[in-house]
Design goal:
The complex is a heterotrimer. By secondary structure, chain A is mainly α. Chain A has 22 helices and two strands. The relative contact order of chain A is 0.10. Chain C has helices at about 5-35, 40-60, 70-100. The chains are: A mainly alpha, B mainly alpha, C mainly alpha. Chains B and C meet through helix 1, helix 3 and helix 6 of B and helix 1, helix 2 and helix 3 of C. Chain C: GO terms for molecular function: cytochrome bo3 ubiquinol oxidase activity; proton transmembrane transporter activity. Chain C: It comes from Thioclava atlantica.
Chain lengths: ~700, ~210, ~100
């Protein structure tokens, strides 16, 4: 290559959104330019404000040494969730603009150009899946799973930090694409030949390819890490069939990550070969086979759906049993159902493209396999309902989400059974009916689950509860906002409105899009309430404090630790005798600490810079490749093996926490617990709840 | 450790190397999981190759491009290299001094590099006959699959060098031992992939 | 069991593996080199030999055994095989089906 692309490659001033305003002809182009520039401005401003605050408060050093280089699974979990909230804010704003466009875009025009609209739905989908949902659930598993199995950290703590930073690198690339346009217009699934160089030679699809590739690498490593942790790091007595159900779903999700991310890596890598080196893998001519892309993408895409939903099922299992004060009904059935779903998820990918032209027999086979998944999922719904039966049910905030989930998810599932029938799918594919269906699964299923989990485990991570009043407000807004935004899309889909439409000329659609916009507005309000809730809770943290760490009368090991837990989690590795380990322990009046002479030195991993370094290299490399900055890409690519080899030379990787320090910490915790009055479930949402619960059987006996 | 219980894929170091063996149980298992993920990667590239195999786009096909003799030599080189890494691994387990381990490791690396050299030679020869990836879907799929394996072999050699560097710097410590066990697992795994490639691509193409 | 017998047994394992690998590779190459059988026969023989050789490598180079192995190792290999069959087989089935309908 003779052209090294120095210094700017193919990057020109056109890439800045402001240029769209300058060159605009007509009202819509102008508005579109303003919308794009405002978004870019908000991104830049947000980054600047963050930088200023960190500098002004002198937070750089703690940020670096306590967070970015930390390999503590709890901190990594928190960083994942913070990241996913930031990305959620952006993707939600994009969704709102799209709903707005479909109202004002009736009879043409509107506030964004079709090209811009296409970027919006592409980033919205890409972010929601790869940079909101995945980090959220990965963060949740990171925080909770090692605590539930009685481990001090994951199996590979440094790799965990690398995974996080690779995911963040992909997110940064997406944020950069807001300022240096354009992003892909090919949707979150990026189908060729539309995303091939012949039709789409610009930077857009390249941004998409590298952002997704970074995230899929990170996710593969995460999957390996979690699976090995669960297989090898369980505490004594924690057999597989004693693991809390959330950990079971974490295991199945990580197995899916290990096996389902490679097809995505292949799909994006082969698309990159086509675009960069003129290969003919998915091209129109030259012997390419674009249908193989759809095949590869959905070989990933379908298991991905279950990667997303299984951890939420885990959260629901914990929520239903904790807030019903009962052990989970049908534990074994739930475990088997989870595994059945995980395996079946590899057998149904063709239902994403029933209309590609394969024979009816083949479609029928995949249609039947798809309907089969309804069976284990139905088993789960019944198990959760029976968990509540004769329980001491409290309609707490997580429980409110859970009840909404039961109804809404079942409706979404039924629409999925309809779509699983190829003859019906031929009528409804590519319409808003499909969009309504998958949002109906992912919002009440996954997102509500994650918010419920966030509400439930937040006090464990930070030592105080989230304010309940704002919690209920947010929950009701989410529930009704969801129904308002997506139920109309079922009707629109059946009326024939295609998905991804910037403007249209059918008057009958307009009222439904207005309702959907109102629903979207309610969802934006719901998100705002979540932020208000966080603000209020931090302000009132003294009132909401639960230092003893068991605010909900929890059942698994993590509730036996102080809130927040110490870096080393357990003063001594617990010995587990059965399911619901902490619920059993509580009844005896004991805690997780060892006898006074039972403390030992604890070895913990030291901080590592590998994660941030790999993240920075990944970001730089993705950016350089997108804009053809070969002079930059080459040295960065060469640095990757150098950094990895250097990592191999690291030896001094552990620090020792002396036994007496552990003993002091735990004694202080014991003393705190001893002087904190126990609280009954009736006072759960009062300031009397300091995290010291009266176990349910004792409360019932009184 | 008794001969009936193994803790991870690949030759276990056993009780003479207790601390390294403990570490290996988790680390080698994790690495093996990664290999399985990699196996899916190769499996899908092979399936893609099978699908693209008829799409020669009027360009050269397998009979015009592949040479059995060269593939045979490559297969033998890689097999010998796999056995050599096995002996290096054995020496690590049973010898007190690392000399034998190093010798066998260097032999394995030399054989693997010879393999890569033959492979590059093949590719260049193919390109001379118009067999470049841009020529057809068939050749694109070929070049997405086969060089990826070669790249893995080269990376394994680089890793071997890094291990030798660590050995020089730190001696035969647990870090070196566990790395060596993982490297051997990678080496054998790449031989498994090659069985798939030579059977499917070369024998399948020339039969 | 002493170290010495361990060592001899393990070295033998690699040599058995080598012998099996050669026994399964050489005939396949010979069939193609001298065109000794019809095309379909060669392909079937190659496929069977490849599967056997993979099994031999797993057993003698990677020391995977059906008994005495930790359970998760075996689970993992079997599950990987299942997924490979589903994904690889599914890809070929689907795209071949499309191919024939477009031809």
């Amino acid at each position: 290559m003779t052209d090294w692309g120095f210094p700017f490659g193919r990057l020109t001033l056109d890439a800045i959104p402001l240029s769209d305003i300058v060159t605009a002809h007509g009202r819509t182009e102008l508005l579109s330019g303003i919308t794009g520039s405002a978004a870019a401005g908000a991104a830049v401003l947000g980054a600047l404000v963050a930088l200023v605050i960190v500098t002004w408060k002198g937070w750089w050093k703690p940020l670096w040494s306590d967070w970015l280089t930390s390999v503590d699974h709890k901190k990594i979990g928190i960083m994942y969730i913070v990241f996913s909230f930031v990305m959620l804010a952006r993707a939600l704003a994009e969704a709102f603009v799209m709903r707005m466009q479909q109202v004002v875009g009736h009879d043409g025009g509107g506030i964004v150009m079709p090209e811009h609209f296409a970027q919006l739905f592409s980033t919205h989908g890409t972010i929601m899946i790869f940079f909101m949902a995945m980090p959220f659930l990965t963060g949740m598993i990171n925080y909770v799973m090692p605590l539930q199995i009685g481990a001090r950290d994951v199996a590979f703590p440094v790799l965990n930090s690398v995974s996080l930073m690779l995911t963040v690198a992909g997110g940064i690339i997406l944020m950069v694409s807001l300022v240096l346009e354009p992003f892909s217009t090919g949707g979150w699934s990026g189908y060729p030949p539309y995303t091939e160089a012949a039709f789409n030679p610009g930077a857009g699809p390249d941004y998409w390819i590298w952002a997704v590739t970074l995230s899929s690498l990170g996710t593969t490593f995460t999957g390996i890490n979690f699976a090995v942790t669960i297989y090898k790091k369980r505490c004594p007595g924690m057999t597989l069939m004693r693991m809390p159900l959330f950990t079971w779903t974490a295991l199945c999700t990580s197995i899916l990550m290990i096996f389902a991310m490679p097809p995505l890596t292949i799909a994006t890598a082969l698309l990159a070969l086509d675009r960069y080196l003129d290969f003919h893998l998915f091209t129109n001519g030259g012997g390419g086979n674009m249908m193989n892309y759809a095949n590869l993408f959905w070989l990933f895409g379908h298991p991905e759906v279950y990667i997303l939903i299984l951890p939420a099922f885990g959260v629901w299992s914990e929520v239903f049993s904790t807030f019903s004060g009962k052990t989970l009904y049908g534990y074994t059935a739930l475990v088997i159902a989870t595994m059945a779903i995980a395996v079946l998820s590899f057998t149904v990918w063709v239902h994403h493209f029933f209309t590609m032209g394969q024979s009816a027999n083949l479609n029928a086979a995949f249609g039947i396999a798809t309907m089969l998944i309804g069976v284990p999922t139905g088993v789960k719904i019944y198990d959760w309902m029976l968990t509540m039966y004769r329980g001491r049910v409290r309609i707490s905030v997580p429980m409110l989400y859970a009840l909404a989930f039961l109804f809404l998810f079942t409706i979404g599932g039924l629409s999925g059974i309809l779509l699983a029938n190829p003859t019906i799918d031929y009528q409804t594919h590519n319409t808003l009916f499909l969009v309504a269906h998958f949002h109906n699964m992912l919002i009440p299923g996954l997102l509500f689950g994650m918010i419920a989990g966030y509400t439930m485990w937040f006090p464990k991570a930070f030592g105080f509860r989230l304010d309940e009043k704002w919690g209920y407000r947010a929950a009701w807004c989410w529930i009704f906002g969801f129904m308002g935004a997506f139920f109309p899309l079922y009707a629109l889909g059946l009326m024939g409105m295609p998905r991804r439409m910037a403007d249209y000329f059918t008057g009958a659609w307009l009222p439904w899009t207005v309702v959907a916009l109102a629903g979207a507005g309610l969802i934006v309000l719901a998100f705002t309430f979540l932020l208000v809730q966080l603000r209020v809770s931090v302000r009132d943290r003294a009132r909401l404090a639960v230092p003893v760490g068991d605010p909900w009368d929890g059942r698994s090991l993590e509730w036996g630790l102080p809130a927040p837990p110490p870096e080393w989690n357990f003063p001594a590795l617990p010995r587990v005798e059965g399911r619901d380990a902490f619920a059993t322990l509580k009844m005896t009046g004991e805690d997780l600490g060892p006898p006074d002479d039972g403390y030992e030195d604890i070895r913990m991993p030291k901080n590592a810079v590998l994660g941030p370094v790999i993240g920075a290299l990944g970001t730089g490399l993705a950016f350089a490749l997108t804009w053809y900055l070969w002079w930059l890409a080459l040295p960065l690519a060469a640095l990757v093996p150098v950094v990895l080899i250097a990592q191999g030379f690291r030896r001094d990787t552990e620090k020792v926490i002396p036994a007496h320090e552990v003993r002091e910490t735990w004694r202080a915790f014991r003393a705190l617990a001893a002087r904190t009055p126990r609280v009954s479930r009736r006072a759960e949402y009062t300031r009397d709840n300091r995290g010291h619960a009266i176990p349910m059987p004792q409360e019932a006996a009184e | 450790m008794s001969a009936t219980q193994t803790r991870h894929p690949g030759l276990n170091l056993g009780s003479n190397h207790q601390s390294a063996d403990d570490r290996a149980e988790t680390e080698v298992f994790g690495f093996w999981v990664f290999m399985m993920s990699d196996a899916i990667l190769f499996g899908l590239l092979m399936a893609t190759y099978v699908v693209m195999r008829p799409n020669t786009n009027g360009g050269p096909g397998p009979h015009d491009l592949f040479e059995l003799k060269s593939i045979f030599i490559e297969t033998m080189l890689l097999l010998a290299s796999s056995v050599a890494i096995g002996f290096s691994h054995l020496a690590l387990k049973h010898e007190d001094r690392p000399t034998k381990m190093v010798i066998w490791l260097v032999v394995a690396m030399a054989l693997a590099l010879a393999f890569v050299g033959f492979e590059i030679h093949d590719f260049l020869k193919m390109a001379g006959k118009g067999g470049v990836p841009q020529a057809s879907g068939f050749l694109s799929a070929f070049f997405a699959l086969v060089p990826l394996h070669g790249l893995h072999v080269s990376a394994a050699c680089l890793w071997g060098l890094a291990i030798l560097g660590q050995l020089a710097r730190y001696g035969l410590d647990d870090g070196v031992k566990v790395s060596m066990v993982r490297l051997a697992v990678l080496w054998h795994f790449l031989d498994l992939v090659w069985i798939g490639i030579f059977s499917l691509v070369y024998i399948g193409g020339l039969a | 069991m002493s170290d010495e017998t361990d060592k001899r047994r393990e070295a033998r394992s690699y040599l058995i593996g080598l012998g099996l690998a050669l026994a399964l590779t050489l005939p396949v190459f010979a069939l193609v080199a001298w065109d000794l059988a019809p095309r379909m026969t060669i392909l079937w023989v190659t496929a069977i030999a490849a599967v056997l050789q993979i099994a031999a490598h797993l057993r003698f180079f990677l020391h995977i055994r059906l008994k005495g192995q930790t359970r998760e190792d075996l689970h993992l290999i079997l599950f990987t095989t299942l997924i490979l069959l589903l994904m690889g087989g599914g890809t070929i089935w689907l795209l071949w089906n499309l191919h024939t309908r477009m031809g």
